[in-house]
Write a structure and sequence with these properties.
Elements lengths: L1 H5 L3 H6 L2 H16 L7 E13 L13 E15 L3 E14 L7 E15 L3 E13 L11 E16 L4 E14 L15 E13 L4 E14 L6 E14 L2 E14 L5 E14 L2 E13 L34 E13 L6 E14 L13 E13 L4 E14 L4 E15 L4 E15 L8 E14 L1
Antiparallel strand pairs: 1-2, 1-20, 2-3, 3-4, 4-5, 5-6, 6-7, 7-8, 8-9, 9-10, 10-11, 11-12, 12-13, 13-14, 14-15, 15-16, 16-17, 17-18, 18-19, 19-20
Length: 469
Amino acid sequence: MAPFIRLFPRAFLSKHPLTKWGRLTALCIFAATSTSVAALDYNLEFEAFGGYSDNSNRQRDGQEQEDSNAGVGAGFGVSHESKTLTINLDYDARYRDYKNQTIDTRSNITGTTNANWNIVDERFAWDFNHQIREALANQRVVDTPDTRETRQILTTGPKFTARLSQADNLILTLAYTILKQGDAEFETPDERQNLDSKRQQAGLTWEHSLTRTSNFNLGYTQSTTKPDDNSSDITYNQLFAGYNVQLASGSYSIQLGANQIERDQSSDTQGFYGAINFNREFSGQAITIDVVRQLTDSSIGLNARGSSSFGLNAQSSNTSSASFSNFDQIAIVERTNVSVTYSHDHLCRGCSWLATYSYDQEDFDQNDQSSIINVGNNKGQRIRSLLRYQVNSKLSTGVDASFRRAKFDTDNRTDDTLTINLDASLALTDSFTFRFSVNHRSRDTDYDQTEILDFDEMSARITAVYTVR
């Protein structure tokens, strides 16, 4: 991992928000793997890239600014699976400089760690999850590097399973979550309202096996979110019942229940909780459906698995396609997310196809006096189609197209964004690969104000990647 660290100046690593948690992550991973390093699978990637855009900061029509950029990056991944320990770690670091300074020079680190330590087989385990990523600070602005902010979520805690009978288990989960947020460069100090927070959670689930492939569960979860700005805490309660089936060809589950959120200076808020998950594989094809409706707080996000899973994970797995995230505040929100994915690995000889549809809606609680004034409800829909063609063992190509419609109720605004990306990858050797891509993005905005927010951008990028396995 030393070459990965040496790519970036010591000053960058000491100031970057990953540093404190990065040390904790490294200590946890080192402690867990010190006795079985030989069994680890790892890969290390180094890349150098250059790019050009005719509208790099995606200004409105008539105000385009072209620019070229260049940079270096590194990626590090580790995986390990044994009876007592499972680890999946994947991080990337990049440094990018813009010739005309339309966007400030940037360094960033993104990635995830998921680890499970099975201390007592099927009885006592400890989970550790960390993610650091960049997300758009304000959904009303265009998505460029200087409009994104860094967000980190670290969750850790134990899981206890008591076998009551051959068919019944009682599962207790405890979790502690830390949420840290950086600032987007385009924001002024007055606009920055990011709130770090901490969350404590406990969940108790009774699980009853109906057959070898199905079970019923009944659970209760309570958590408390404490914002670091001393605003009022949020206490969250969830009661649910679920039915789950695991088959050789896939799985499906349904959970139904109720949510309640208590907050000082606001009346209690009740809501419906529902989660449906369906996975099916057949003849090289697969379909996945996720539906979640849940009362939550805007800083953390959704959870589609109830307390039988580890923690109320923030914007992971089932919510990766969500269009909106109001992380700039800790507010009560009822959120609905629908995601449908279809894939075909053998559409033609050497072809694979992926199609997705997602819908996301946020309804903010207007009785929550801690919310920022004039926060409106939002809706977003997105469709995407990805076609890849493996020409031969060295060359592959792809076409990725998506259309997104976002509606903002507060200012009666609708954004339609179209993105098309063409790419090619040429493996010169097992370790050295060239990648080339051309991207077009445009946005048409229907807005009550006289301000015109439409933009178009055409960009290209070439990357050289060296991989060590």
